[in-house]
Each structure stands twice: as C-alpha cells, then as structure tokens.
Design a protein that fits this description.
GO molecular function, one term: peptidyl-prolyl cis-trans isomerase activity
InterPro entries: OMP_Chaperone_SurA (IPR050280), PPIase_dom_sf (IPR046357), PPIase_PpiC (IPR000297), SurA_N (IPR015391), Trigger_fact/SurA_dom_sf (IPR027304)
Distance between the termini: 13 Å
Structural class: alpha+beta
Shape: globular
CATH topology of the largest domain: Chitinase A, domain 3
Helix content: 40-55%
Number of helices: 13
Keywords: Chaperone, Isomerase, Periplasm, Rotamase, Signal
Number of strands: 13
Number of domains: 3
Largest sheet: 4 strands, antiparallel
Protein name: Parvulin-like PPIase
Organism: Novosphingobium flavum
Order of helices and strands: EEEEHHHHHHEHHEHEEEHHEHEEHE
Amino acid sequence: MAAVVLAVAAQAQGAPEQTPQGAIVVPNDVQIFGKNDPNNRRATAIVNGDIITGTDVDQRLALILAANEGKIGDEEKERLRLQVLRNLIDETLQIQEAKAQDLKVDEDEIEQTYARVASQNFRQDIKAMDAYLVKIGSSPASLKRQIRGELSWQRVLRRNVQPFINVSETEVREMMDRMKAAKGTEEYRIGEIFLGATSENSATVEANAKKIIEQLQQGGSFVAYARQYSQASTAAVGGDLGWIRLAQLPGELQQAAASLSTGQLVGPIPTSGGFSILYLIDKRQVLTADPRDALLSLKQVSIDFAPGTTEADATKRAGEFATAMKAARGCGAVDAVAASVGAQVVANDQVRARDLPGPLQDSILALSLGETSPPFGSIKEGVRVLMLCGRDDPKVDSGPSFDQMMSQIEDDRVNKRAQAYLRDLRRDAVIDYN
C-alpha cells in the first residue's frame, strides 16, 4: 500500500511560513497509515513504456561485483541492486529524451566506443571482452546500453544546454589572472560521486552514500562506482573533475577537499541537490613545476634469498649489500660492485618519479647523482636499491591556456544545468514497478 500522510495545517493570515520543504507541508507529528517498504520491490520497472528487466539489473550489477572482486555481502548486494535500478531508470530517461528529439546514436559509434573501452580499460580485444563479460555474469549488450545512454545524454546536452552556456572572454581572463595571482598555492585533481536527493529520500540516499564509501575503503574501484552511481555529467569519465582550485568548488565541498591527502576519501557531504563523495587523486602547486614529473634514469640493484633462508641470515646479507652499495661511486662503478656481492643490475632511463610507489618518491627525489635509495623488499621478494644516474626536471607549468580555461568553466556550468534537466525528466516520468 502507498503511505498516506495525514496533515492538518492551520490557516495563518499573511504570507505562509517557509519550511525546509518549500510548499510541501510536513508536520512534526506525522501519522502514517499502512505500510510502504520501498526496498520490498522486485528489480523491474517500466519507464514511460520501456521495460527494465531483472536481468538488466543483474547484468549491470555484475560489473560492479567484478570491479570489487566479488567481495560484497548479500545485504550490500540488495542495496546495490536498488541503486542500479535507479541508475537504469535515469539512463532510460536519457535515451528516451534523445529519441524524442531525433538525436540518433549510430551503432557503429557504439561499437567503436565499446572497442576503445575494451582496449583502454580492460586491455582486451573485442572477442576477449565479450567472453569476459559473459564469464562475470554480465553481457556485451549491457555495457553497450550504458555507452548508448552516455552518448545519448551528451547529444541532448550538446543541443539543449551547451548552446545556452555563455562564458565571456572577460570571465576567462579574470579567472586566469586570479590563477596567476595564486601561483604556488595548491591545485587539486578530484574525483566526485554525486547522488541526487530530495527532502523525502535524503536519509536513504545518505545511507547509500555511506555504503559506497565502505566499499571504496575496502578496495572498490572509484572509477567503476562513479560510472555506475554518480548522477553528475562526469560519471562518463569516472567522476574525474580534472585539475581545479578549491575556490572553484561549491562552498560546502571546499573545506572537505582541503583536508584530504592523496588517495583519501571524504563524504557523504550534503550539497544543495544531494550528497557528494570526494576522492583526492592528486595535488600540485599552481603554475609551479612538480618535481614528481621529473624523468629519472635509474639502476636497480637487487639480491635474492634462497628458499629456507632465515631472517637472521637475510638481515646479515642485506646489511652487507647495503654497505657495498653505499661504497659504489656512481653508476659507472655500480655494475662491478654488484657483481662482487652476487647482485643483479637492471637499468631504465625513462622512469617518471610520480610513477614510483609513494614511499619511494620523496627518497629518490632527494638523491644526488650516484647515490642510492635505502634498501627495500622482503625475504620472499629479495632486497633492492635504486641508484640515481640522471634526472631531467620538468619545466615550469604555464597553466591552462585560454581555451582550456574557457572549456573548464563551460563544463562546470553544463554539469549544473544537466542535473536540473535530469530532475525535470524524473519528475515528468511515468514509472510502474512490478
């Protein structure tokens, strides 16, 4: 049964008192008749006449489970199933809107995008990708439908939103001037998952957001969750907002983002239209060369331990190895020193500092030519050191070009209009649940 809320509002003279719900009046002493459990539904819906089947939901859910290596409990799966259904409803509305405006997405374009996703995201050809999707319980058709939804929505926004976004040259130049004035301050590359919410479903959406954070903290793929769950236009690129300064974020997100370290999550953060989950991908200083972009020439010197080596023996040999490496005078002499202690040497002159594991980056960047890093490794994997043989430092970052800055401002405004557009489509939709 549908829930029926009995509300008696007293008439007051003059203008009605504003409430957090606006014109919707919800008294504090709500009395509910009947029982309505929105979670007690079969995962099937008919959206303006188009059917979403339980199989559609299962196959899309399989993509999320695979991204998390199946480490999701039964209770969490049911919550995810409902979220996937909501996403499929939005996707259906987006496809329907494109069709209503005669905005076609060619099958060839979908196939090309599918092939690109297989190659770039999964490093597989089309046949291997097809087999992989079937193996995990999904299907090529499910992923292609998601691609169709993204391409359809892009076309809708390109016709109905982007032409009405006006960014003047003055605005762009003012933004660039502010960026130059902020030289040396920090710039952030942030990922966002945005979940739209109303006053009626705010508690449920917030609970869903907390569950998503739990899964991400347990090793879930942020990009995969953003593509499946986020209702922002950046969902198609895994939630990546690109490089931004905190001043470009809404006020409620600025403080939360400022407290993050690289690789950390924060949320759910209440916003005007719902909740956001932020992930700090990276950060750097505005218009300042990032040392982590330095191109390094390294030699890796390593020793292995025979099976059964005790910890005491391994520690002793590792100490001798470290002492020998410190005595090596430059990269020209390291090969001979390594041979004297039975170590192996591998060279690479195209290593970017930011591609090294975090704990090693600072120690390597602090080295002078011919110096070695502290030993690292284990009895099982062996012990190794890195010797710095050369370093090409990055040039000073000149910042985004005029066109890039204009595009960034336009994208931000399109994203906000797109959220409002999708809310209107949901409001006008006729949705039947089985």
